[in-house]
Amino acid sequence: MNNCPIEKISMNENAIHLALNIISGKWRLKILWEIYTNKVIRFNQLQKNLDGISNLMLTRCLKELLEYKLVDRKQFNEVPPHVEYSLTDLGMSLCPILRSLEKFGYDVINQTRNN
Amino acid sequence: MNNCPIEKISMNENAIHLALNIISGKWRLKILWEIYTNKVIRFNQLQKNLDGISNLMLTRCLKELLEYKLVDRKQFNEVPPHVEYSLTDLGMSLCPILRSLEKFGYDVINQTRNN
Q1: B111 interaction partners in chain A (CB closer than 8 Å)
Q2: Is the ipTM value over 0.85, yes or no?
Q3: Which of A23, A54, B76, B77 sits 20 to 30 Å CA-CA off A95?
């Protein structure tokens, strides 16, 4: 049975709920994943790839992800000027967690389907 | 930089959202963690340990966790009869995910606090 160290029994719910809050929500997960799979991506391309997201919503979500230090923003003052987004190391550290959540979700689907 | 295998780019959002849905919610996380730390626990003790949860809410949450196959329920027809709850292997598999979410939440708190 896959086990966690019992002696460290305490669990910081606030930290877990913060993490859940960051990942939940309709768009943040999609945005993080889109930036991740493109490594570096511009705002317009991001909006194009995210079917149905408004300019305002994408701007707001990016602002939140920047504040959480999950996303990096680079401004290029060329002609025309543009901005590129990429994941920070902290943002990248989310990737294996998403994989484990994905696998857990699959396992639940399979187990509940078999009965 | 901590990295995920790029070649497996797709992500099953439904599976992730199912996992997030199971973990989120005010009580399920607390219930899972309480059962985990006690290994085996009876309903009354569980309710006592979960400050403020009603009988109805605990019954409903346990029903959901049973349906998701995360919790096991054993009936003892002794005098007096009683029921014991424990985590299934699937429930136990959530434990390291909660740890990783907890760490991620801490990292975000620390990074945002340093700036």
Answers
A1: 68-69, 90
A2: no
A3: A54
